Amino acid sequence: MSVEDSTKDVVRLVDVRKDYGETAALDGVSLGIRAGEAVAVMGPSGCGKSTLLNMIAGLDRPTSGSVVVHGEDVGGLSEKGLALYRRRRIGMVFQFFNLIDDLSALDNVALSAQLTGTPARQARRRALELLDELGIAGRRNAYPARLSGGERQRVAVARALMNRPALLLADEPTGALDSRSGEQVMDLLLDLNQIGQTLLMVTHDERLAQRCAGRIVEMSDGRVAAEHTLERTA
Predict the structure, then answer these.
(1) DSSP states along 162-195
(2) Residues 71, 89, 17, 172: what is their CA dihedral angle, to the nearest 10 degrees?
(3) pTM of the prediction?
(4) What is the rounded average pLDDT of the residues 133-145?
(5) What average pLDDT score do residues 103-109 get?
(6) Cβ atoms of 16 and 66 closer than 8 Å
(7) SS3 content of the chain, % helix, strand, coil (to 5)
């Protein structure tokens, strides 16, 4: 997709380069993601997928070029601004869940809203609503160690959605799951996108990309090598 003439892009990268010493992890990447799209970024290890995700998440800054997400120039934000951006603009789902072990499922979800200043009672009410929508309200008082991998990923997705993010980022969201739990998470991501959630996935899982994405971006050696639009499989 051209990034030049779209005013509806939630994400817009223009000629983004990221150098680590003598190595270019990203080498002139331009990419646009429109509101409501589901995009899967694929490619071999070391091709720049994770660096791309980190740029969009505000976890790293470009050496050159621009990263604009929901109207904010991410590379130009202060450290405090980046922290607020991550809490308010995006939700993140990780391969290994990144839940806090000594908090219940409900409190893991509610915490992200409380960090933005939402009163605890209001945060817990929304957290319970999300857990209910994701079919896991019955496990709200369980601690992560007592949850299955699929349940933990559902809690992680609920946490990512707490602040109604413009963009949901998923980094290998099925990578640590067995086949059945992976299928459930695929269904969940597909359902979220079908009700309008903009979604960017980094994955090695061809099934996830084919099932949940409307566009695949293939990366190689820090560059976008190819893009494909596709019909989702049932």
Answers:
(1) TT--SEEEEESTTTTS-HHHHHHHHHHHHHHHHT
(2) -140
(3) 0.86
(4) 92
(5) 95
(6) yes
(7) 40, 25, 35
